[in-house]
């Protein structure tokens, strides 16, 4: 986002030496407004090929052909950060395709520019943006703790043995399925060995939950006025099965920062490699505290032949009202993920959000931007490997182009970073 609100650090007083700033607490971001000050925004997740440092000047600063220079602070002197001069757009914006250096202060300068108006020379005075300094993330975990376990400062294993989540009545997170190995977090799905009594209990509970869900769906359908919508709802409700766990019972994994780290908005990024197999889905996402509100899915991966999703859920998870990304719009990077080789590599996923929009990126390239009201609340981060009852049949019978699972299957995470917004 080319907004000063999302820069990693902003320092007033253009031309003055940068001063160290304390890590800020979460703040409420105001709605986007017309640019009234010259500012610089640095994105730590944008691809340098598309631009990662954005200078915002006033529209009145624009003159056709006017160019902008980028400077960085070296000691007490300003030096050119790049020899490239970028043309200012009519909106007063100049985007630099450079990789920001860590803990470095930058500013952009539009030098004095002489042009002609009715054959008379006119000189626009030199103007510059405020300074912006890259900073370390508020959360940065490379999974290299001496204990070779999750960093308890940030993460907790959650929902151990919980089979009550809707449509996952035959799967539950298990603490043992979230591990650290050689600097990589492994979030795993596996097939447990259960005794007959435990299996019978899980299956019976699943049938009870399925019947309750079907009864609720039938009641809701019957309450609709006569017409096509009612007919469709009744058909869907009647098709709901009450058959327990015909494709098996599985162990999943879920870890989160709930109670340890939250952010109201900002930037989240992670370097991840997902399994090719279908029948499960790995994901990294944020959810509001308390639950029952909004969720922003930075990425959910359903395997080769299915693809990956970026999804916005606003107040719909438990309340039944709000906004959710339409199914057809959830799937992103469709061409890239069709290739088997894509799933064999690590990729950087990121999500940047404020009160008015959310932008998703894959390897620094924007995959989706959704402009909608985003509740400014505390969100915690979740890493999960889940298997919903409706998808586990694909473990052995994947859709066209898919790969059968060879359990255990793991989502592998090299690092997670998060930046809270700066006021």
CATH class of the largest domain: Mainly Beta
Gap between N and C termini, in Å?
16 Å
Determine the mean pLDDT.
90
Proportion of helical residues: 10-25%
Q: What's the number of structural domains? A: 3
* CATH fold title of the largest domain: Jelly Rolls
Overall SS class: mainly beta
Please tell me what the overall shape is. elongated
User: Low-confidence parts lasting 5 or more residues at pLDDT below 50?
Assistant: 1-33
Structural account:
This protein is mainly β. It folds into 3 domains: 130 residues, no CATH class; 225 residues, Jelly Rolls (Sandwich); 54 residues. Helix content is 11%, strand content 35%. The strands form 5 sheets. Strands 14, 15, 18, 19, 21, 22, 23, 24, 25 and 29 form a 10-stranded mixed beta sheet that branches. Strands 13, 16, 17, 20, 26, 27, 28 and 30 form an 8-stranded antiparallel beta sheet that branches. Strands 1, 4, 5, 6, 8, 11 and 12 form a 7-stranded antiparallel beta sheet that branches. Strand 26 and strand 27 form a beta hairpin. The radius of gyration is 25 Å and the shape is elongated. The N terminus is likely disordered.
Could you list some keywords that capture this structure?
423 residues, mainly beta, ten-stranded mixed sheet, eight-stranded antiparallel sheet, 4 helices
Task: List strands and helices in order, with pairings.
Layout lengths: L9 E2 L27 E4 L10 E4 L10 E8 L2 E4 L5 E2 L5 E4 L8 E6 L2 E5 L2 E5 L2 E2 L2 E3 L5 E3 L14 E2 L13 E3 L4 E4 L2 E6 L6 H27 L5 H12 L10 E7 L5 E2 L2 E8 L7 E8 L6 E7 L6 E7 L8 E2 L2 H4 E2 L1 H4 L9 E7 L3 E6 L2 E7 L7 E8 L22 E11 L4
Parallel strand pairs: 15-18
Antiparallel strand pairs: 1-12, 2-3, 3-7, 4-5, 4-6, 4-8, 8-11, 8-12, 9-10, 13-30, 14-18, 16-17, 17-30, 18-29, 19-29, 20-26, 20-30, 21-22, 21-29, 22-23, 23-24, 23-25, 26-27, 27-28
